[in-house]
Amino acid sequence: MTFLRRASILISAVVLLAASGCGDSEALRITSVEPASGTYEGGDVVTIHGSGFQAEGAKGVKVYFGGRSAKVLRFEGNDELKVESPPGKNGDVVDILIVFDDARRHTYPKAFTYTNPAAGFGVNALTNGETPPADEAAPSDEAAPSDEAAPADKTQAAPPATTP
Length: 164
Description:
The chain is of the alpha+beta class. 13% of the residues lie in helices and 32% in strands. It is built from two helices and eight strands, in the order αββββββββα. Strands 1-3-6-5-4-7-8-2 form an eight-stranded mixed beta sheet, with no helix packed on it. The chain is elongated, with a radius of gyration of 31 Å. The N and C termini lie far apart (139 Å).
């Protein structure tokens, strides 16, 4: 085979591969995660923003937060994926990895921070006007103390008069 013939075949093969979709029409990537933090207990709905999520049709996907499997809720187009965060360790900052059935995968480094929403919420926070989490709020049948002075009881008898 001559050099020109081999070069022609090679160029034709490259053109066919490109036309058949072997290249990414829209590259798989994650651009942001919302919210970027959630409770260490898990269960937060997290939206992963990006592109290429459903390139060439919807596929199965698995999502991992620092190695822990998240529950996939649904795709919202080619650029959003909603998941439920798995439990994690308070204070951990973890990568998010998405893996598709067609072997495409993408890691978003240091994407999610596990927090304890009740941590640091004490007397100082209350005096600064912060609202406690729902599970720490005072029961509704208890009246909160008032800053106003109680009105004087007008039914009280006057002190006895002193005699000279």
